Amino acid sequence: MLFNHGLAYFKPWNFFWTVQTIALAICIIGILFHFIFIFKGRQRSLNQTINPLAMLKRFFLEVLFQSHLLQSDKKRWLMHFSIFVGFIGLSFLSFLQISNIVLLDQHFNFELYAWKGFVGDLFGLLMLVGLLIAFHRRFVQRLPHLRRLANDKTAILLLLSIVITGFMLRSLPMALAPLDQSQKSSFFSLILASLFKVLIPYISVSLSFWQNVLAVLWIFHSLLTAVFLIYFPFSKFIHIIFTPIELLLNASEEDQRRDIYA
Amino acid sequence: MHKKLQPILSALSGRQILEAEACTGCGECVKLCPVYAIEPEERLTARGKIDLFKNLLRNEKPPLSFLLGNRSNPNFGIFQDALWKCTVCGQCHFVCPARIDTPNLWEALRGMMGVGGYGPPQEQQEYLQIIKTHDNSFNQPQAIRRTWLEQAYAEGQIMEPVRNILEHPAPVLYFMGCTATYDVTIRQVALDTINVLQKAGIDFAVLGENELCCSGKMKRMGEVQFNERARANIEQFNALGIKTLVASCAGCYKTINEDYPKIAPLNFEVLHVSEMVHRLLQQKLIAFQRSLEVTTTYHDPCHLGRNCGVYEAPREVLKAIPGLQLVEMERNRQKAKCCGGGGGLKLVDHDLQIKASAARLEDAEAIGAAMLTTPCPTCYLSLKKGQEFSNSPVELQHFMSIVRKALDLIGPA
């Protein structure tokens, strides 16, 4: 969502690349330290023969589809599955865009593809829905088994901020300038743009004002993604890597247990 | 103090270190934790314990350890208390969306803390010392394992004398366990089992004074000598040439069936006595003759159910008894509430264990059961204390007592 066409506004790309590179380096180093640390454990991790078929089955069922969550609590599954699919989807999209810029030197104009606007919005919307459910459970319903620790709150609020600023960066230019090819398929951003069109005259009719707002928003969004990358290995976000590994290890160990894998 | 942590981490597996980070902190474990239900403190839950473990690791794990130094201020005392105030019932494993193998994690963490000199608690250390010194957990001479059976035969409590397997090899070894041998209030379980096996014509024998404690309690409490003692038992069992080992106690069964094979392979099958009775019924070697008109509910021992997956065999036996109506408590099978008797909790917090047992009896009362039965001597004893505490009207019967009565064998009315 960092790469919007249409309305021109100030985008300090050098700042972006510097911050993102540092953040990504910290993220990768942090993750690597986790893996190195794991090898301090000297006891045997698996007592059964490794069962690749069971692991593959559980990769699709539990890691990707999260069937075990669906069985226990449908609302929780909707929340987690939406965040998971949205997060993976947006991460993959960002990876494609960065690869496009870094590796293909922008000869292949990724921005013009209509599907990009559609899937970007779809993943963003999924994430937003999941995060709003999480927000509701934690801050409104205040379910007794949910903690209200800074780490838990930060995770939700950080992701929410990234998604909301992302959608604003996508929809505000739509409200201020004619649409380009990829924007036309951004179904959710178009709805937001129509809302902004109503609000904009009440705030300011000056285009330069909105260009400044977008520039600040752009920098803020890129900072948030950098904060996310830095925070990732040192927070509960690390479960995104380790929970699937644990699910697969357990599948190999206990695949025959019908009371676990019904 | 924390500097000691790094070397003792080798007592864990890579998976167990990884599990600290796999926990999402979702709190599903909080909902069904039997200890938290009585003492609602976050640190006592699986999530709380993992958080405390993470806090210890944070001090050791680069790069934060370089940047923050000792700021995370790990509190070994709090972690130690939380770690041992747990029944290791395994309920948290079954509800964990990350499928963290909590029972093995708690035991390994207890072991790790023990290596570093941070546990087990004094009460458990004294108990473990008894096992180490006497090869049983009752501070009694080993010879009693033989003499009490001879006396029981002399008094007509068993139909035939029980042979020693070292003198008379047999395909089936009956591993009585310390509780069914030394606890006079529970010996009837061993007598009933012997009578059932004799009635079925099973060629079995016992180890007598050569039976050593399975050392399962050592494993649960994190005593590192467990492996050494388990290996000695495995060598002894494997040398007997038996086909089947039958265990009375769910804890012994779990230890021999689940923990021993992780140390060395076994050359025989392991059955819990409830599975053995089920098999004898299926093979028509025994048949229930007496009707027992009673509404009964079944309590799943954690070591038998959640830990070993044995849920149906004892239920099938109970259903086969004429007149007996089996009803289920709201939480049964893999969600069965723990009686509080496991993991050495009753040594650390006796009151908590009694309250957990009383809560289980309340569950039985709530569904209108007149009787509650369980096939584990440890659960039975714990529930008995809960019954005395709560004055529950629910009658408590060991599973083998019901089987014996339905078979119309000798024994108390």
Task: Name the assembly state.
Answer: heterodimer
| Helix-residue proportion of chain B | 40-55%
Q: What is the straight-line distance between the termini of chain B?
A: 59 Å
Tell me the series of helices and strands of chain A, N- to C-terminal.
Answer: HHHHHHHHH
Largest interface: which pair?
A-B, 46 and 46 residues
End-to-end C-alpha gap of chain A:
41 Å
What is the CATH fold-level name of chain A? Fumarate Reductase Cytochrome B subunit
Outline the biggest β-sheet of chain B. Answer: 4 strands, parallel
Task: List low-confidence stretches of chain A.
Answer: none
Please report the total strand number of chain A as a whole number.
Answer: 0
What number is the mean pLDDT of chain A?
90
Count structural domains of chain A: 1
Number of helical regions of chain A? 9
Query: How many beta strands in the DSSP annotation of chain B?
Result: 8
Share in β-strands of chain A: under 5%
Helical content of chain A (DSSP H or I, runs of 4+): over 70%
CATH class of chain A, please? Answer: Mainly Alpha
SSE order of chain B? HHHHHHHHHHHEHHEHHEHEHEHEHHEHEH
What key attributes describe this structure?
heterodimer, A: 262 residues, mainly alpha, Fumarate Reductase Cytochrome B subunit, 9 helices, B: 413 residues, alpha/beta, 4-stranded parallel beta sheet
Give a structural overview.
The complex is a heterodimer of chains A (262) and B (413). Chain A has 9 helices and no strands. Chain A has helices spanning 13-38, 52-64, 67-72, 74-102, 114-140, 150-176, 187-203, 207-231, 239-254. In chain A, helix 4 (74-102) crosses helix 5 (114-140), helix 5 packs antiparallel against helix 6 (150-176) and helix 6 (150-176) packs antiparallel against helix 8. Chain A is mostly helical and 262 residues long. Chain B is of the alpha/beta class and 413 residues long. In chain B, 50% of the residues lie in helices and 8% in strands. Chain B is built from 22 helices and 8 strands. Chain B has helices spanning 5-8, 14-22, 28-32, 34-38, 46-58, 64-68, 76-84, 91-95, 102-115, 122-134, 144-154, 177-182, 187-199, 216-221, 226-240, 250-259, 273-282, 312-319, 345-348, 350-366, 377-390, 399-407, and strands at residues 172-175, 204-205, 244-247, 269-272, 294-298, 324-327, 371-374, 395-398. The longest helix of chain B is centred in the last third of the chain and has 17 residues, at 350-366. The mean pLDDT of chain B is 93. At the A-B interface, helix 1, helix 3 and helix 9 of A face helix 2 and helix 3 of B.
